[in-house]
From TrEMBL:
GO terms for molecular function: 2',3'-cyclic-nucleotide 3'-phosphodiesterase activity. InterPro entries: Metallo-depent_PP-like, YmdB-like. This is YmdB family metallophosphoesterase. Signal peptide: none annotated. Pfam families: YmdB (PF13277).
């Protein structure tokens, strides 16, 4: 039996949560989606994710929340992530860190393994183990256990993400890039049957700078004075990609999801 997996782009602040609240459940029903994976590390004001917002997103229909370099930005998540297997931090953080980077689930009678990894370039605050060596190890282990590997790669350079996609082609059913929060136009099925996209965008304001108010972000560039980014509520949409995995455990399709959402602040 085939499996439909929805990978939501990074959820940015209250506008992003509003998009999930309004659009996710109807979409799950309409498209018969079996599994929803979302990058949630920007859910709390765009910088990290707190315990309350993570619980809210799980109740709204997300099955697995992934994070990146901001996963530990909120103090209550440092403790909570160790207690909730549905919230993943990058697997290449030190082993003794709170939380986990891998989640095994049974979907439509088939074992699935969700893996999230942080890139090694352009993250000056983190110094993690090699993303590529670990990805190979974790994907091979998942295959040995009869699970379909789904990799979410939170990385900055396009070249790094493409390299990961081609390296895991034919092994992982999907390699989905996150972090830049801009939907890329290169979603495709690679030669070996792996669904790939460099970045699956963001949930929240589409007429913004990464989900934030443009005026504030422009001032930062001109004045070079640190000020807090402000959430933007213009042109809201639920954005991501949907991947269908065939009975042969290969990706058979990848399509962009872009659902406009009314601006109703909560």
């Amino acid at each position: 039996m085939s499996i439909r997996v929805l990978f939501l782009g990074e959820i940015v602040g209250r506008p992003g949560i509003q998009c999930v609240k309004e659009a996710l459940r109807p979409l799950r029903t309409e498209k018969s989606i079996d599994l929803v994976i979302a990058n949630g590390e920007g859910a709390t004001g765009g910088f990290g994710i707190g315990r309350a917002h993570s619980m809210q997103l799980l109740k709204l229909g997300i099955d697995v929340i992934t994070g990146g370099e901001k996963i530990y930005y909120k103090k209550d998540m440092v403790e909570f992530i160790a207690k909730n297997p549905s919230i993943l931090r990058p697997a290449n953080y030190p082993q003794q860190n709170p939380g986990r980077g891998v989640r095994f689930l049974t979907v439509n009678g088939q074992e699935v393994c969700v893996i999230t990894i942080l890139g090694n370039a352009d993250f000056p605050r983190t110094h993690l183990s090699n993303a590529f060596s670990l990805a190979q190890l974790l994907v091979d282990k998942a295959l040995e256990e009869g699970a379909i590997p789904l990799v979410q790669f939170h990385a900055s350079p396009t070249a790094e993400k493409l390299s990961m996609g081609f390296m895991l082609d034919g092994k992982a059913a999907a390699v989905i890039g996150t972090h830049t929060k801009v939907l890329s136009a290169d979603g495709r099925i690679l030669k070996g049957g792996t669904a790939y996209i460099t970045d699956n965008g963001r949930c929240g304001s589409q007429r913004s700078v990464g989900g934030f108010d443009p005026t504030t972000e422009i001032e930062k560039h001109i004045l070079q004075i640190p000020v807090r980014s402000q959430e933007c509520w213009d042109d809201l949409a639920l954005v991501g990609v949907m991947v269908e995995i065939s009975d042969e455990q290969k990706a058979s399709s990848i399509e962009v999801v872009h659902i406009p959402v009314k601006n109703e602040r909560t």
